[in-house]
Amino acid sequence: MPGFEIFSDEEKKEVNDVLNSTVLMRYGFDGMRNGHWKAKELEKALAKRMQSNYAHVVSSGTAALTVALASAGVGAGDEVIMPTFTFVASFESILAIGAVPILVDVDDTLTLDPEAVEKAITPKTKVVMPVHMCGSMADLDKLKAICAKHSLLLLEDACQAIGGTYKGAPLGSIGDLGCFSFDYVKTITCGEGGAVITNNKTYYENAHMYADHGHDHIGMDRGAEAHPFLGYNFRISELNAAVGCAQLKKLDGILALQKRNFTILKNTLGQSDKVNFRRVPEGGVENYSFLNFYLPSHQLAKKAHKLFGENGVDACFYWFDNNWHYYRKWEHLIHKTALGKLPHEVIDQLPDYNKTDFSSSDQWVSRNISCLIKLGWSETEMQERANKMLAVISAL
Ligand SMILES: *Cc1c(COP(=O)(O)O)cnc(C)c1O
């Protein structure tokens, strides 16, 4: 990760197909397209790779989450359970449809803690949204059982975990709906883009219509299409989808490179008894985009992260202090600061995140360091980085 490291002639050819046709729009213009339908091609390939019946590609991962929620009928006042450790897109997508984000602790997997999920369920809960952060997953069997027991939807945010698996199934394909991001730094990239996958025909039909102003996509004349319900524009352009077509073909190669570099780093850091690795639920296989480990205390983790930087080891993250990924720094959510008025359901139901106790999340995230695994690092470079990191940790 990220996929832009391996851009080559394939991406250029796909983009040139589109530019030469002059059709940047994913629908219509049939006579001018020279047979190129990049968004549709990407959807077909993605559905196949993810062993899902349907895929719909949209303009971003955030859009994918919004479209997924809307397509399953989630709306104003519905509660969506999401983790304290994720990207701001999780609560943005929930708020965008007037629903209420209910933050819940993460455990040593760095994703939703099933026990905390069960405690957070109310009569208004509609969805459980695990976020497979940094390439690895929540305990999906446990979450599935909770969702079945309480008749809730399971929506997987697999934006950072494309290519990982759980009990043999691709991440994203296990819940009722799954979402991916193809933004500029993701494992595979379109520049900006995202996707929703599902086996549910109704959700899929809703998704493609909702993401295109409610157009029903029936018949050859866009101007004559009906609009069965209100929608928005979350369409991807053909240019972005074209890049995605080339990148998806490289996914398995990317995963193999990441695994090689991840394994070198893990084997080296594992020599220190100060290091414990993130728990991966039984039957889970990461996509190896990050290596996550815990140090014995908050202070040591913070110090090690600083020393890595000073010793030229970049691309390591200390999420506990990060503005985008951990609830402590989401002051706009905590203070309910919006440009206009928030829906009254959100105002009434949003917990006071100033007072909520997330000490269970803190005990994991404050001790965690997360190392990005780049594709461009040779085995020798990776081993050198790993040795430097081990030396820093050993001297703590
Ligand atoms: C990147 C990301 C998103 C949103 O994707 P964009 O394409 O940047 O909108 C959502 N969730 C997670 C966990 C992400 O990492």
Q: What can you tell me about this protein's structure?
A:
This protein has 14 helices and 14 strands. The chain has 396 residues and is an alpha/beta fold. It has two domains: 3-250, Type I PLP-dependent aspartate aminotransferase-like (Major domain) (Aspartate Aminotransferase, domain 2, 3-Layer(aba) Sandwich), CATH 3.40.640; 252-394, Aspartate Aminotransferase, domain 1 (Alpha-Beta Complex), CATH 3.90.1150.10. The strands form three sheets. It has a seven-stranded mixed β-sheet with strand order 1-9-8-5-4-2-3, sandwiched between helices. Strands 10-12-14-13 form a four-stranded antiparallel β-sheet. The chain has a three-stranded antiparallel β-sheet with strand order 7-6-11, with no helix packed on it. Helix 3 (61-71) packs across helix 7 (201-210). It is globular. It starts with 8 loop residues before the first helix and ends with a helix. The model has no long low-confidence stretch (mean pLDDT 97). It binds pyridoxal-5'-phosphate (PLP). Pyridoxal-5'-phosphate (PLP) binds at residues 60-62, 86-87, 89, 131, 157, 159-160, 181, 183, 194.
